[in-house]
Amino acid sequence: MESLLAGTTLSNAIPFRVRPMLATLVREPFNAAGWTYEEKYDGIRILAYKEGQSVQLLSRNAIDRTNSFPAIVAAIRALENSTLLLDGEVVLFDKKRVSRFQLLQRGGDQPIYAVFDCLYAQGKDLRRQPLAARRAILERSLRPEKFLMTSSVLGANGMAAYRTAKRKGFEGLVAKDLASPYVEGRSTLWLKVKVHQEDEFVIGGFTQPAGTRKYFGALLLGVYDGAKLQYAGKVGTGFDQKALAELHGKFLPLIRQHSPFAKRPPGKSVTFLAPKLVAQISYQEWTADGMLRQPVFLGLRDDKSASEVVRPGAIA
Questions:
Q1: Most Cβ neighbours (<10 Å): which of 62, 150, 257, 294?
Q2: Bridge partners, 281 (sequence order)
Q3: Does residue 306 carry a pLDDT above 90?
Q4: Known catalytic residue: 304?
Q5: Is the pLDDT of residue 134 over 60?
Q6: Cα gap 93→108, rounded to integer Å
C-alpha cells in the first residue's frame, strides 16, 4: 500500500473510485445521429488512476493489476497532468493489428493501453460531462507512445463502421452516445455489436482425457440464468500441453461431488468443479437447444467473477 501511495498528496488525490461503464449487447448494427462508433477491443478492461507520481491500475472487478503492466504504469506516470482517471483496455495486437485476448494470456510481448475515456483530470470530476467533451480532454491529455494510445474511432456512420470492423477482422464495435455522461454499470447509452462470437463462460467441470492427451479431455461450460448455472456445452480445443497442466492444477482444489449445473450434463466420466473459474471462449453460434457450436478455449479471465457470466444479450 505504501508504494501505491508514494507521491500522492491531498492536492492530487482523486476523491473517488468507480465501477466501469458497460455496454449493452445488441444483435444488429445501426446508425444514429449523435453517436460515435469505436473499435471493440479483445483485452482486459482497466481503470487507471494517476495521482501525482502514484499510478494504480484496477480491473473491472477491482483487482489491482498495477504490477502486471509496469511499462503502461511508467507511461501514465510520465503524462503531464498531475491527476487523471482513464478508462480503457489493455491489449496486444496480432500482425494484422487485431487485438487478441489469447496473446495476453501467452505473455512475452509488451501490451498497450488503448484509452477511450477520461473521468477526472487536473482536479476536475468529468463524469457528468458529455462523452464528446471527455473525449476531447482525453485527446489533449494523452501523449500517444509505445504503450499508450487513444481508442480507434471507426466513424460517425454506424453501418459503415460495422463494415470496417468486419473487413478488418475486429471483434466488433462499440457505439456510444456522444451526449452521454459516464454511468457506472450496464447502460444503453453505450451499445456493442459483435462481428464474431466470443464470450465468457463458467467452468463447471471437465471430462477425462482420451488417447495421448493428459490431465483432462474437455471443459464443461455454463452461463447463469438468475441463480442457476445452465449447461452450455463442452470445449475440447484451444489447449497446448502447458495450458492443460496449468488448468488442471487450478482445478484440483475446486473438485466437488455434485454438479454445479441446474441439470446434470450428459456423460459419465465427468469431474465437477465449484463454479469459480471463468473462461474466454470463441464459437460459431448458439444451437437451437442452447449449446455452443465449434467452441475454442482462449484463456482464463481473472477480471470477471463467475456470478457476472450470463447468456450474451442478458443483463448481468
A1: 150
A2: 199, 297
A3: yes
A4: no
A5: yes
A6: 13
Q: Evaluate whether 116 touches 134 at the Cβ level (below 8 Å).
A: no
Structure-block grid coordinates of residue 34: 449523435
Residues in the chain, overall count:
316
The amino acid that residue 312 corresponds to is P
Which of 40, 50, 176, 304 is flagged as catalytic? 40
Residue 76 exposure: Cα atoms within 13 Å on the Cβ side: 33
Dihedral class, residue 2 (left if φ above 0, else alpha if ψ from -120 to 50, else beta): alpha
Average pLDDT over residues 77-81: 95
Classify 66 as helix, strand or coil.
Answer: helix
User: Which residue type does 128 have?
Assistant: R
Cβ-contact 273, 219 below 8 angstroms: no
d(CA 171, CA 181): 25
Cα–Cα distance list, 99 to 21, 169, 212, 217 (Å): 21, 9, 33, 28
* pLDDT tens-digit series, residues 205-231: 999 998 888 999 999 999 999 999 999
Return the C-alpha torsion angle 13, 19, 21, 26, nearest 10: 170
pTM for this one? 0.77
**What integer pLDDT is reported at residue 9 of this predicted model?**
54
Q: Helix or strand or coil: residue 204?
A: strand
Kindly report, residue by residue over 224-269, the tens digit of the pLDDT: 999 999 999 999 999 888 889 999 999 999 999 999 999 989 887 8
CA gyration radius, the chain = 21
